């Protein structure tokens, strides 16, 4: 059941496996988060600047390797903007290489989730949002 107070989570990634996994594992929750799958960084910026969902998301899951505008570029833009900088952003990374981790945190991300390995962390983050709303 989706309620007005349900957390809104943007998932910015080329594929929809992250969104599918999270939705499948949260289906029985009373305040199931609303997941909005976005294919690329440019589409995310359009959705945010035009407030296409009528509100800002409670969380953005942002892949580093998105087309058109990669996740690093998007993260940098969002964290420099006074309207968007307070939105928590978890980066979806393919590797835990020190260089990647350092770059994400230097640009202002709030955390990392390694794709295909730590999707349970994604579900836990979504559950915490449900309880805080």
Automatic annotation (TrEMBL):
| Gene Ontology biological-process annotations | phosphorelay signal transduction system
The record's Pfam families line, in alphabetical order, gives: Response_reg (PF00072)
PROSITE patterns, alphabetically? RESPONSE_REGULATORY
Judging by the UniProt lineage, the source's domain of life is Bacteria
**Which InterPro entries does its entry note?**
CheY-like_superfamily (IPR011006), Sig_transdc_resp-reg_receiver (IPR001789), TCS_response_regulator (IPR052893)
The UniProt record lists the Response regulatory domain at 8-130
What is this protein's name? Response regulator
Please tell me the species this chain comes from: Spirosoma rhododendri
